[in-house]
Amino acid sequence: MSKEDFRGLVAKLTTEISGRPLDADLQRWLNTEHGPGSEIYKAVEQSCRQGVAEGWMCEREGGGIRYGRVLKASDDLNRFSVDVVDMDNVVGPHHSHPNGEIDLIMPLSGGARFDGHEAGWCVYGPGTAHRPTVTDGRALVLYLLPEGAIEFTRAGA
């Protein structure tokens, strides 16, 4: 799948979630409608695996994490940006989500978990913060950020 095809896939997904509150109800809906085993989940997972292998995803590395912003927030993506990280038993940098964050967890090995969640979707509401953590293996995690908004905590703050 090309980067353009990936953009089209994400645009279909963001059209379905656009305007919905980022909350536990959205997380349940995503896991029911587009959870592991669904066509969308499988297509996104395959695209991410291919994108990482081809080098157009996760092209940067720091702190034991491969990462990168794949798509900037734009109208065709319903104002969501897309980042993908490749994490293997590591704790990432503390950050907050001014507008919330929607995560798709795709384990690559073992029973990898992201912030305690197995394969599937995790939704953080506006104003939340965390240190993204992958345990029990390696996982790809796709982040949908409304307006691309993310604020990293400065070291020592």
Going by CATH, the homologous superfamily would be: Jelly Rolls
Residue runs with pLDDT of under 50 for 5 or more positions: none
The gyration radius over C-alpha positions equals: 14 Å
The run of helices and strands is HHHEEEEEEEEEE
CATH architecture title: Sandwich
CATH hierarchy, class? Mainly Beta
What is the fold named in CATH at topology level?
A: Jelly Rolls
- Report the total helices: 3
Total of domains:
1
What fraction of residues sit in β-strands? 35-45%
Largest sheet: 7 strands, antiparallel
Name the quaternary structure: single chain
Structural classification: alpha+beta
N-to-C span: 41 Å
Count of DSSP E strands?
10
Mean pLDDT: 95
| Inertia-based shape | globular
Helix content: 25-40%
Describe the structure.
This protein is an alpha+beta fold. It has helices spanning 3-17, 24-34, 39-54; strands at residues 60-62, 65-71, 80-91, 95-97, 101-107, 113-114, 120-124, 128-130, 133-146, 151-152. Strands 1, 2, 3, 5, 6, 7 and 9 form a seven-stranded antiparallel sheet that branches. The longest helix has 16 residues, at 39-54.
How are the SSEs ordered, and which strands pair?
Blueprint: H1 3-17, H2 24-34, H3 39-54, E1 60-62, E2 65-71, E3 80-91, E4 95-97, E5 101-107, E6 113-114, E7 120-124, E8 128-130, E9 133-146, E10 151-152
Antiparallel strand pairs: 1-2, 2-3, 3-9, 4-8, 4-10, 5-7, 5-9, 6-9
